[in-house]
Amino acid sequence: MSLSKVSVAKVVPTDIAEFLLESAEFHEKNAFIEDDPIRLPHQFNKLQDIEIIGFIVACISWGNRKSIIRSGAFLITLMDNSPYDFIVNAESNDLKKMQGFVHRTFNGIDLVYFCEFLQQHYKKYISLESAFYEEAWKIDTQKTDSMNVSKFNKRIDMDVESQTLEPIEKALINFRDYFFAQPHPSRTEKHISSVLKNSACKRLNMFLRWMIRKNSPVDFGFWNHFNPKDLYLPLDVHVLRVANQLNLIEGDVANWQTCKDITALMRTILPSDPVKLDFALFGIGIEQKS
User: Fold this and answer.
1) Would the N or C end of the chain have less CB density within 10 A of its end CB?
2) CA 58, CA 204: separation in Å to the nearest integer?
């Protein structure tokens, strides 16, 4: 992985740390949900409904939040307001109506493949959480072959040579390989970011925050395999801008290394739950924009 061209603070000054903690407490409230894409999975009670809508909405989360929410609401309508039932029972004719979906560069071709992947996964697993395990890749022999598994393991080995992978880092790499294990449109690959290509993986990190963080009025915290302390901040333009303003970093490169750098600083403030501070950095950024 290449290093970012970003200067990073060695420590977070006490006054800045206190400010971020206060701001996170201020923003992480039920009121946050109303104007954020997370409001869409919050419409459901069933785990699988929340996972499906949360995952797809997170993956289309670029642009302004109002447009994301509109697109997500349309998606729910296309799924007859019952995402899990739609996914597990969908036949080819049912998927045809997905072809008219468009959100920026994510279109119906992409959505159909997302649905096909989810259908295959939920035929074997109760939760989408297992898609981020290494075991999911190894067990899913129906759609993988020895060459693909070998290629995946080779990439992991190559990366381990340069640095030890952290749990979420490995999960992100594993998930992408698992997601694209079956035949898929090449255009869809751009919608699942790659750690190995030095992407900041903002959307997947946001989805993982939703699913893994505990004791939050906003995030769901359903998943137990991963520890919240290992999560990474969803690095977007708002977080990057505010981090610059607070002199935590200097530079505008939104890549994986920058994500790790900023998260490492947040871990010095709140080691057990660093991405809680996403509510501070993102919340401040949204307020400045408005």
Assistant:
1) C
2) 7
Structure-token pair, residue 43:
């419409």
Among the residue ranges 142-151, 206-215, 269-278, the one predicted with the least confidence is 142-151
SS (H, E, C) 16-41: HHHHHHHHHHHHCCHHHHHCCHHHCH
The candidate with the shortest Cα–Cα distance to 218, out of 31, 57, 70, 50, is: 31
Residue 119 and residue 88 in contact, taking contact as beta carbons nearer than 8 Å: yes
Spatial separation of the C-alpha atoms in residues 57 and 221, rounded to whole Å:
17
Q: Does 252 have pLDDT greater than 90?
A: no
Question: What's the CA gap between 48 and 50, in Å, rounded?
Answer: 5
Q: How far is CA 253 from the centre of its chain?
A: 19
* Residue-range domain boundaries for the chain: 7-131+150-289
Closest CA to 166 of 249, 257, 251: 257
Region 82-110: what's the mean pLDDT? 93
Report how far residue 278's alpha carbon sits from residue 219's, in angstroms, rounded to the nearest whole number: 12
Higher pLDDT, 163 or 209: 209
- pLDDT 10s digits, 26-69: 999 999 999 999 999 999 999 999 999 999 999 999 888 999 99
Angle, to 10 degrees, between the axis of helix 202-212 and the axis of helix 167-179?
A: 110
